[in-house]
């Protein structure tokens, strides 16, 4: 990675948005010097009348790249280059940065066109991640590659975890199956993992790609 690292974040207040952006930078830049971070307030947000029409604050944060990045493996550098080339090819105006820790290569994109890069339910992002992993496994070296977009995966994982718990309560309470919307393989795995130790329900995937979905079933159900 060369040049500064830039991320964007939102929050109920400017201060909260700055704190979120700072935490994302700390994940991307090992040994981040907080004093070197430059913030840009993109929107101060609006609370709206009586809480209606709330608009979150939106900030950008930029920091110099870490010198530790010189120690990145060729596979990590190749993953970043691949993701950046794909983003450019689909017309997404984003910048890709990469960090490598304990065999996991994380390529994080930030910029104006993250929605285009993510796609519906993360389908485009998952496809890019799948291809990046396939490239990383060519030859002797193997690294797990995670492709993210300004913290999208963490936010989506939290959303899916909540969905999994709510679906489990419904399935257990009604003693009937609960079908979720079609998801990518990556997102289905999050649902399965969230409920694998739940004593009340079990999960299964049904349907054909790209419309494969998770079903949450009460345990010992006739279904």
Quick summary:
The chain is α+β, with helices and mostly antiparallel strands and about 220 residues long. It has helices at about 15-30, 75-90, 115-120, 125-135, 150-175, 185-195, and strands at about 5-10, 40-45, 55-65, 95-100, 105-110, 145-150, 180, 200-205, 215-220.
Write the layout of secondary structure elements.
Elements: E1 5-11, H1 14-28, E2 38-43, E3 57-63, H2 74-89, E4 94-101, E5 104-111, H3 114-118, H4 123-136, E6 144-149, H5 152-174, E7 178-179, H6 185-195, E8 201-206, E9 213-218
Parallel strand pairs: 5-6
Antiparallel strand pairs: 1-3, 2-3, 4-5, 7-9, 8-9
Description of the molecule:
The protein is of the alpha+beta class. It has three domains: 1-66; 72-150, 2-Layer Sandwich (GMP Synthetase, Chain A, domain 3); 154-218, 2-Layer Sandwich (Ribosomal Protein S8, Chain: A, domain 1). The protein has six helices and nine strands; from the N terminus they run βαββαββααβαβαββ. It has helices at 14-28, 74-89, 114-118, 123-136, 152-174, 185-195; strands at residues 5-11, 38-43, 57-63, 94-101, 104-111, 144-149, 178-179, 201-206, 213-218. The strands form three sheets. Strands 1-3-2 form a three-stranded antiparallel sheet, covered by helices on one side. Strand 8 and strand 9 (213-218) form a beta hairpin. The model has no long low-confidence stretch (mean pLDDT 83).
